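This part of the workshop introduces the protein records we will be handling. A record pairs a protein's sequence with a compact description of its fold. Backbone structure tokens are a discrete shorthand for how the chain folds in space. The question running through the whole workshop is how a given chain folds. The record below serves as our worked example for the rest of this section.
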Amino acid sequence: MAMTQEEINNTNWSQSVAGVCIKDDKVLLARHTYGNGNGKLIIPGGYVKFGEIPEEALIREYLEETGVRVKAGRLIGIRFSAKDWYAVFAVEYVEGEARSDGDENSEVIWMDTAEALKDDTVPGLTKTMIECALTGTGFELTPYQTNRTGNFLYTRKN
């Protein structure tokens, strides 16, 4: 399903998120249908809409692309460049049956984590993020006192 003009205009193309969902020693992966990831099994994610915080975008993108509802957990990876940023979270499975969106991916599967780490169709970035999710380390949302709303801070938790 193609994006509407309103969706295109409301998308912040310089901010993107993804998440690693592991349940019963299996990771949820989607086979991408376009761009550099075409044909590859990657962790689900997408772009942030204007006015949306990364955790909200992650939950929305997961549901749209996979049919699975998740809860954002610790931040396990972030990539910055001069033009954009990409944040990856460990996510907790909440509910839903994995299915393809029929557009951005051709299939959505639960793959054994050990198998995913060896599979040639799983790119290096996805493998690295799976490994980070499995270690249990990362940055957790830490509350702090402020007089403004919408602020958040992630700090290292062991």
